Amino acid sequence: MVCGPLLVTIACLVISSTGARADSEYERELKQLVDRRNSAAAAAAAPINDKFRAEAEQLLRQATQSGNTEAAKRIKAAIEDAAGHPTDEMKDLHKQLVGSTWTAGNPNQMRPGLGATLTFTDTQVNPGGYLYEVDSRNTVTILFKGGDRQVMLLDKDGKQLKLTFGTSDYVYNRTSP
What's the pTM? Predict the structure, then answer.
């Protein structure tokens, strides 16, 4: 009779371990399904998000140039919400800018107030000693001393800063780090 309860205990352990293995196999397969679904959803949403971001950044430039700071703040918030983790990305962009030098794509055609070469320090754009803000993962706003603001967008490659002033577009190319 002693073997009876021991045999039952062993049988229960075998059954429960088989069930545990089956559960972990299903959990692993479920995780793979969820990962595939998330990857497919991200891939499908990427073009939509890119288009939103481009159009929202253009709207942000317009709002900033017209001096509508409240609208600009709301637009920035929407762009940051779409970006996912703006705080980390903004810190990364700030790190990328510090110590970098940018040269006007056409030195004969520059935005008034900006030099042919721009150098970013931790807090300023030189020449001029203008303060700047990193507004999102790819947007920088230069704060001119007279109160004017200029939004600049970093391209996807990180090699050009683009801006619009009035009806003209300007480009600064990265020349060092």
Answer: 0.51
